[in-house]
Amino acid sequence: MADALLVVEQLEVVYQRVITAVQGVSLRVEKGQIVALLGTNGAGKTTTLRAISGFIGMDDARVTEGTVTYKGERIENLPPHGVTSLGIVLVPERQKVFENLTVAENLDANVARVVKGFDRKRLAASVYEYFPALARLRSREAGYLSGGERQMLGIGAALMCAPEMLLVDELSLGLSPIMVSELMQRLLAIRRELGTTILLVEQNAQVALDIADYGYVIENGRIVLDGTPERLSSHQDIKEFYLGGGSTRRSYRDVKQYRRSRRWYG
Amino acid sequence: MQLTINIVVLAAIYALICCGYVLIYRVSRVMSLAHGELMMLGAYGLFATAGTFSGHPLIAIAVAAVLATMVGVLVYVALMRSMTGEAVLAAVLATIALGIFLRGAMVLVWSAQEQHPIRLLGWTNSAVSIGETARISAAALVLVVVTALAYLSLYFFLKYTVWGIRMRAAGQNPLLAAQRGIGLHGIYALAWALATFTGGIAGMLIASDTALDQTMIIIGLKAFPAALVGGLDSLLGALIGSLIVAAAEVLMIHYIDPLLADVVPFFVLLVFLIVRPWGLYGSKEELDRV
Ligand SMILES: Nc1ncnc2c1ncn2[C@@H]1O[C@H](COP(=O)(O)OP(=O)(O)OP(=O)(O)O)[C@@H](O)[C@H]1O
Ligand SMILES: [Mg+2]
């Protein structure tokens, strides 16, 4: 129970002192797992990840309730660079590269977690191995990269922080299905070879559940469902709203509130 | 010839002062309007150390330079740090308040009397002849060399060292920089330290060339248009802006009226604000690419 790598408990986040974006989100991620956090637009996925990775003053956001625990240490009020130095690194949804820096500089800028025998050059080399496309673009300004290349650079730069855990926000955003499955395979390889734990936020439930070990569904700032990928994909409501299947088309409002399923994990 | 030398010297003065404006603006979007005062504080620092370590001019200069650097860190930690993440205007106002405070404090401590730190160091500011007719004072010559060195080292620092790259990264996107493990406070303190270091050196050299009194604040103020003309976030722009402003000023003084000296930089600035509001090398409105 208590030995999960990351435990989020009853998290509540308020923007600008009045807008509650997340209320009572709880989730846990075991070491070495890939966990998917699914939900529609505005459900609170990004807010949850941002709360884990830390806010800065100009976000005007605050964790008002609940806790985030990483390796037994409370981190909900740490600044982002503090969280990063503990080993949790976010690949943000939107601004994930420094546009006026070259690809190589984007990799160099990061401050890595303190690890024994850390070698920046070797790590950079392995990033270029995971994403060969970046190697050709080394001296290109990141502002000119395509969406897919940006996503690769976002992940690559996060790897330069020597993370134990990656938080990835909408890998699939604006990318072709081929690029998405390609990147998902890269994440699997990263987990396999570097042992990195991954919390993956997605609207595209199918691609996320394909590689995940466990999944949560968030709606209106609350976790409404969680379970193994098999269980989630076979769930009627998930089928209908996230996987595009389902028997009859019902309007979104007609659906009764998801039955809060009991956790049968961990 | 003499005119060219005058332009180069004045441009070097402005440029050395400008790198402080540019560094701070570049990382934090804050215009430090206390720069003239901080520069003067650096000069008084030399005045003080020259008195303390009399007979050891090099030690006095080194200690004064270290003090000037520490002042920057202190200003950031004590005052600007709490402004991080607040509206930029609040931070700019804080620098104005700091400037007023420093001005008053310096008059109290050192009086408004003209001082000559170089004499305390035991040196004289003799003139060097260049060619047949032109002359340059030793202090001005050193200033030109120091400015060139400062710009070269800053260029290499920002371009090729990890901390320089981090500084640029933090200036572009502080949130992402923090998420990538870069401590913003460290970067901002570093920018302030570099700014008061270069500004302090500029103050010391100007005080050595002419004298140390309240007019130094005006010189600091006149350098601000040079930085703005260059675009405020580019070192190359600051260099060229300094040249333009210095050339305009020297030529106006020579051909029209010496009384114009203090007005010219602001006049040049006005022209630029109309023609090219983002400055020579400043970034235009950033395009959002998705
Ligand atoms: N900076 C902010 N200030 C105020 N409200 C915000 C802010 N950021 C997000 N919100 C609000 O919080 C809610 C949750 O937003 P969030 O970005 O977490 O959703 P999301 O699940 O990531 O959605 P998407 O899939 O569209 O990215 C939304 O209603 C949004 O309008
Ligand atoms: Mg989002």
Note down, in words, how this protein is organized.
The complex is a heterodimer of chains A (266) and B (290). Chain A contains 10 helices and 10 strands. Chain A is an alpha/beta fold and 266 residues long. In chain A, the strands form 2 sheets. In chain A, strands 6-7-8-3-9-10 form a 6-stranded mixed sheet, sandwiched between helices. In chain A, strands 2-1-4-5 form a 4-stranded antiparallel sheet, covered by helices on one side. In chain A, helix 7 links the parallel strand 7 and strand 8. Chain B has a single domain, classed as ABC transporter involved in vitamin B12 uptake, BtuC (Orthogonal Bundle), CATH 1.10.3470. Chain B is an all-alpha fold. In chain B, helix 2 packs antiparallel against helix 3. Chain B is globular and about 60 Å long. Chains A and B meet through helix 2, helix 3 and helix 6 of A and helix 7 and helix 8 of B. Bound molecules: adenosine-5'-triphosphate (ATP) and magnesium ion (MG). Magnesium ion binds next to helix 1 of chain A.
Quick summary:
The complex is a heterodimer of chains A (266) and B (290). With 266 residues, chain A is an alpha/beta fold. Chain A contains ten helices and ten strands.
Give the beta-strand count of chain A: 10
Low-pLDDT residue intervals, each spanning 5 or more residues of chain B: 284-290
The strand line-up of the biggest sheet of chain B is 1-2
Strand line-up of the largest beta sheet of chain A: 6-7-8-3-9-10
Identify the CATH homologous superfamily of the largest domain in chain A.
Answer: P-loop containing nucleotide triphosphate hydrolases
Main pleated sheet of chain A: 6 strands, mixed
Q: How many structural domains are formed by the residues of chain B?
A: 1
Helix/strand/pairing class of chain A, anyone?
A: alpha/beta
Q: Output the helix-strand order of chain A.
A: EEEHEEHEHHHHEHEHEEHH
Q: What CATH first level of chain B would be assigned?
A: Mainly Alpha
CATH architecture title of the largest domain in chain A: 3-Layer(aba) Sandwich
Mean pLDDT of chain B: 86
Which sequence of SSEs, written as H and E, runs from N to C of chain B?
Answer: HHHHHEEHHHHHHH
Strand content of chain A: 15-25%
Instruction: Quickly count the helices of chain A.
Output: 10
Shape of chain B: globular
How many helices of chain B? 12
Number of structural units classed as domains of chain A = 2
CATH third-tier fold name of the largest domain in chain A: Rossmann fold
